[in-house]
Automatic annotation (TrEMBL):
Superkingdom to which the source organism belongs: Bacteria
Entries under PROSITE patterns matching the protein: HTH_LYSR
Family: Belongs to the LysR transcriptional regulatory family.
Short name of any one Pfam family annotated for the protein: LysR_substrate
Protein name (Swiss-Prot/TrEMBL): LysR family transcriptional regulator
Keywords in alphabetical order: DNA-binding, Transcription, Transcription regulation
Amino acid sequence: MKTTQESIFSSKTLTYFLQLAETMNYTQAAQILGITQPALTQQIKKLERTVGAPLFYSVGKKLRLSDAGYTMLNATHSIYNVLNKATDEIQQTTSATQGSINIGILASIEDHVFEDFAIKYYEANPNVIISFHMLTRKEIWERLENNRIDLAVMYLPDESIKNWKPYQSKKIIQDELLFITSDPKQAKKKRIKFRDTTSEPWVMYPENYYLDQVIKESYKNQLADLPTAIARFTTPQQIYRFVAATGTNTALPNSFMVANPATDDLHTVSFEPAIKFDLNFVFRKDKDQIPRIKNFLDEFDNYLRAEDYISRLQKINQK
């Protein structure tokens, strides 16, 4: 017969509870988990009977965590932290030149430098398997928390992340968001005010993407009207192609534009004031002490010392 602890802390039970706490929607959580909604409801009710208190309650059509639910959520995160720390400690005794490294890259990032480095890293470390995953910001944080990726490549600062305590970051470069337009009147400008960028429709990232939120926050801070979005795409390549074909406007990172220079019909201008952010490696604390992870980060440092990030992007464009 299962003990109370076994009933509460089975892997399946925690997974179901965490997914529902994340989505706050039975239908959506069940779809993500690949089970039926009644099956999920049954598992949650079973967990509530075991702990002796409701973990969720409804306000109209919206689901909320109860006080007991918050206690369970904190306990679950603590359990995952202990398990992840144990895994990292075990892996710290492993080889620097064998094993696998899973890297989550924000889908809106120009990734050519990382692809180029992966080739060179493989040539020196053929027994380390590197896996790149192009992910949304939400997917990156979920996989970091569940220890499914070792390193994330993403933009910071990110105000949507509330719990930074288990993580640390390592800066790669500072990047800047540039205004992209086909308006010839803007071609000779070095900087442009936010209010002067909205006369034509924009192509943007999906809502809630990091750069979409950066744009909205920047326009809000300058008391300027938001651009009107007529299309949204997840990658800078898609946005750039659409803008080039339609004569619309957008904003893309300088790093992307260095690797993909504007055509004669498109012009890049810095915002006034500039929109700047950092590109970083993000990982769980002490993850960089695992030999193969430490070796990877050290090799990447050496790679950029030999030739800096922007220079490598420029060289990639010339190929």
